[in-house]
């Protein structure tokens, strides 16, 4: 929770910046009004109740669902400084529509507010996209376990370009704001944790764009429904472009303020 120091205590909970001003392609926040006990809607679950549908706040209809009741995450009410989150251990959510957000693009930005309840010792995708409807084609993902206890941003090109990863170590059972930026045009990438740039590369990938084919493989908590993360997730945002430095700073400060302890 060290990333809450991005903003002073006097500004926490009162930052006027609205993430909608950045036009995210995906915005998931664990608000009661966005969580449902069925994959097609239904009622807001009580504390510990299962989540069948997590609705997108961006206005783009990119909701995440789970039709299998045995693999649904659970709602954790006011569990992180008064804010709700989803517990995902042997559970996952997948996109409800063709996930075209990262199709035919030259850059992407992903943010997650989450924690690893158990730090992975092997590769685990917490947030996963794959193009051309295949697990092993173009992909962009964030997660942990590239090496034991590390977070990473990961990308692969469909044209046979090499996989590329940046990683940074974390410790223990605490929430973190993880931001990954990939730019295929400039072949660069950045990995932020707690609003601080931790790793970067100017030769991350071969220049080009991702596949134009829409992706139907987009998920949170697992990339395949059999290998799961042990995580709590409060928020996920994604943009099919690289955010500017000013936008990154504003987003980091906003999320720090939103998840700060009540004054």
Briefly say what this structure is.
This protein starts with 25 loop residues before the first strand and ends in a 5-residue tail after the last helix.
Q: Could you characterize what this model shows?
A:
The chain has a single domain, classed as Sandwich (Jelly Rolls), CATH 2.60.120.200. The protein is 5% helix and 36% strand. The chain contains one helix and 17 strands. A hairpin with a 4-residue loop joins strand 13 and strand 14. The longest helix has 14 residues. It is globular. About 2% of the residues have low confidence.
Helical amount: under 10%
Structural class by helix and strand composition? mainly beta
Task: Give the overall form.
Answer: globular
Please tell me the total number of domains.
Answer: 1
The overall pLDDT average reads 83
Task: Give helix and strand order, one letter per element, not per position.
Answer: EEEEEEEEEEEEEEEEEH
Tally of individual helices: 1
Instruction: Return Rg in Å.
Output: 17 Å
Give unreliable regions as ranges. Answer: 132-136
- Gross CATH architecture: Sandwich
In the CATH hierarchy, the third-tier topology is known as Jelly Rolls
Strand order of the largest sheet: 2-3-4-7-16-9-10-11-12
